[in-house]
Amino acid sequence: MSSHISSDHISSSWYADFFTDLPNEFWRRAATPEWTEADVDFVEARLGLPHGSRILDVPCGSGRHSLALAARGHRVTGVDLSTEAIAHARRAARVAGQAVAFEHGDMRDLGRFGVFDAAVCLGNSFGYLDLAGTRAFTAALGRAVRPGGGLVVDFGATAESILPGFAGTPRTMRTGDITVETTTEYDVAASCLISRYRFSQGARRLAATALHHVYTSAHLGDLLTDAGFTDIRRYAGPDGTPYTLGAGRLLLTARRETG
């Protein structure tokens, strides 16, 4: 019997319940300090951020980029919907002695946090929302970044990255005593990836499903343009390599229009 599932059977707000302690701890361990530093180097260099810039990190997850940016002298606000992740980020900030404002909130509702010199959306969270939600998120970013301010968007589910040679091969990943087994399907009607995860840590078991909506590189550019951004540039990683067909990651940079 086929195990095929459709995204129609998965809640569009799956992310509201997905990011509990076991998945969050897995990704906290998987993301190395070297990855974080490379991302922050890219943000500072490509956006030309002076010391003390006000930066919005959304969604911020457990705060690794927020804390790294704060350590370099920036004033950072991190926003995330996961209460577990925000609680962890606040504890980490206290331990590090960093005055980061970690706020629980939805990525589409950013008005109460003010206006920033730059915004970053790093990690794998861009694409969690459907098209209407993604439009709302990019519009919120447009309102949150001052005219002339910068933006970095990290996206691993660009069509040009995902679709060439897609096979959905099962994967097993381990970080210490946490193991996650992953299977992925592509829903052609909805243009999204359906990823099913089975986490285990000792006797603990957790099954969870995630959706990543797939957009073309051009469509992403249109979404940012509609939100008031210009000078959109595409890179395949924090080393500044140009983005090409088949590259596994897309880093977009942009500027908020000034007029």
TrEMBL record:
BP GO terms, sorted: methylation
Claim: Transferase is one of the keywords in the record: yes
Record Pfam families: Methyltransf_25 (PF13649)
Domain of life: Bacteria
Residues annotated as domain Methyltransferase: 55-149
SUPFAM superfamilies for this protein: S-adenosyl-L-methionine-dependent methyltransferases
InterPro entries: Methyltransf_25, SAM-dependent_MTases_sf
Transferase is among the record's keywords: yes
One term of GO molecular function: methyltransferase activity
UniProt entry keywords in alphabetical sequence: Methyltransferase, S-adenosyl-L-methionine, Transferase
Protein name: Methyltransferase
